[in-house]
Amino acid sequence: MTKTEIVNELARTRVVEEITARVARVPQLTTELWDLVQIVYVALLAMDDDKLADLYDSGQANYFIVGIVRKQYWSQTSPFFHKFREFSRRNVATGRKDADRILINAAGEM
């Protein structure tokens, strides 16, 4: 299989989504977790074709995906943590429930 076919199969069977929900210990994916799913798909598409094919053919792709998700979700130095989890944590701390929907104009007024 080609890399694109492998990623399409993973998307069709929702493997990445299921792994992400399990790692995050939630029954349903939140908006930020859907972003993590997309980060994983981008990482898979950026991989070397032969490496991804070898992982998939040997049955190791799921373990590899678990590693990506765990590192992105739990590491405080990951891009996902800085873009999404830290943002959410700060908004909860300040009491802003829907801060991602607040638009600030050029003057800085809300």
What does this structure look like?
By secondary structure, this protein is mainly alpha-helical. It has helices at residues 3-12, 15-24, 31-46, 49-57, 61-74, 79-94. α2 packs across α5 (61-74). It is globular, with a radius of gyration of 17 Å.
List the helices and strands and how they pair.
Blueprint: H1 3-12, H2 15-24, H3 31-46, H4 49-57, H5 61-74, H6 79-94
Helix pairs in contact: 2-3, 2-5, 3-5
Could you tell me the number of beta strands? 0
**End-to-end span in angstroms?**
51 Å
User: Which structural class fits the helix and strand makeup?
Assistant: mainly alpha
Shape: globular
Low-confidence segments, given as residue ranges, are 98-110
| Strand fraction | under 5%
Oligomer: single chain
Radius of gyration from the alpha-carbon trace, in angstroms: 17 Å
Encode the helix/strand succession as letters.
HHHHHH
What is the helix content? Answer: 55-70%
Largest sheet geometry: none
Helix count, DSSP H or I runs of 4 or more residues? 6
- The average pLDDT score comes to 82
Output the keywords:
single chain, 110 residues, mainly alpha, 68% helix, globular, disordered C terminus
Brief characterization of the structure:
The protein has 6 helices and no strands.
